[in-house]
């Protein structure tokens, strides 16, 4: 290694420059300061489609801020993501997941709306199930039925934003002495992950008759 390259590498390690190491994740905050519309009917909706052959569900993971737009609801400006369901057929399971992270976990609520943007069914963040490093929710619809939901609305759950996902674990340290004697010291470690109006999410619809579909490589990971 050339002397100049060696010095640069040493400076990178010692100074821990951000460009040299792992970047700490921070949730992107949606913009609600500009371009806020007065109602859901004025929002641009995102089409919700099934996975294409060989497409992996994880490729649809993104920041809520990437799909969110500002709308005034109940007199307050808030970020929402509006998905259009007309691309789905028959019985469908919509799999909604938010990533659990110290950099911010999206405290999402999910609402099914009719064609006039009226609520059909609401799912608060407390309806999401915590599994490993994420929260997930399954929403079932049948597009073949009269009056089927036309939209899926995702927005922050105001009753949960500002709270924390709290995990308490134990850590132990062993000290070894002469003759193989050992002493163990234990302590509790609390891990906090803030619940925000921002974070990573993944929204993927699956046909209810999906056994053959997933066998073709459309895994949910």
Question: Which descriptors apply to this entry?
Answer:
6-stranded mixed β-sheet; mainly beta; 10% helix; 14 strands
Describe this structure in words.
This protein is mainly beta. It is built from three helices and 14 strands. Strands 1, 3, 4, 7, 8 and 11 form a six-stranded mixed beta sheet that branches. It has a five-stranded antiparallel beta sheet with strand order 2-14-5-10-9. β7 and β8 form a beta hairpin. The two termini are 41 Å apart. The N terminus is likely disordered.
Task: Give the topology, please.
Layout: H1 3-15, E1 46-47, E2 62-63, H2 64-67, E3 69-73, E4 76-84, E5 91-99, E6 105-106, E7 108-113, E8 119-123, E9 129-131, E10 134-142, E11 151-156, E12 164-176, E13 182-196, E14 200-207, H3 211-215
Parallel strand pairs: 1-4, 6-13
Antiparallel strand pairs: 2-14, 3-4, 4-11, 5-10, 5-14, 7-8, 7-11, 9-10, 12-13
Poorly predicted sequence stretches spanning 5 or more consecutive residues: 1-21, 211-216
What distance lies between the first and last C-alpha atoms, to the nearest angstrom?
A: 41 Å
Calculate Rg over CA atoms: 23 Å
Number of helices: 3
Arithmetic mean of pLDDT: 84
Largest sheet: 6 strands, mixed
Describe the global form: elongated
Name the helix and strand elements from N-terminus to C-terminus, one letter apiece.
Answer: HEEHEEEEEEEEEEEEH
Number of extended strands: 14
Helix content: under 10%
What percent of residues are in strands?
35-45%
| Helix and strand composition category | mainly beta
């Amino acid at each position: 290694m050339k002397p100049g390259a060696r010095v640069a590498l040493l400076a990178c390690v010692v100074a821990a420059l951000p460009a040299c190491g792992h970047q700490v994740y921070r949730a992107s905050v949606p913009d609600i300061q500009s371009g806020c519309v007065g109602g859901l009917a004025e929002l641009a909706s995102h089409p919700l489609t099934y996975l294409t052959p060989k497409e992996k569900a994880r490729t649809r993971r993104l920041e809520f801020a990437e799909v969110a737009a500002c709308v005034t609801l109940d007199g307050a400006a808030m970020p929402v993501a509006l998905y259009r369901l007309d691309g789905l057929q028959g019985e469908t399971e919509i799999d909604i997941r938010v990533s659990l992270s110290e950099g911010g976990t999206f405290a999402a609520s999910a609402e099914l709306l009719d064609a006039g943007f009226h609520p059909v069914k609401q799912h608060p963040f407390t309806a999401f199930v915590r599994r490993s490093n994420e929260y997930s929710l399954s929403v079932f619809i049948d597009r073949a039925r009269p009056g089927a939901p036309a939209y899926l609305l995702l927005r922050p759950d105001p009753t949960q934003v500002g709270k924390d996902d709290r995990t308490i674990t134990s850590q132990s340290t062993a000290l070894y002495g002469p003759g193989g004697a050992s002493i163990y010291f234990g302590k509790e470690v609390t891990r906090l992950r803030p619940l925000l109006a921002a974070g990573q999410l993944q929204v993927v619809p699956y046909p209810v008759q999906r056994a053959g579909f997933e066998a073709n490589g459309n895994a949910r990971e």
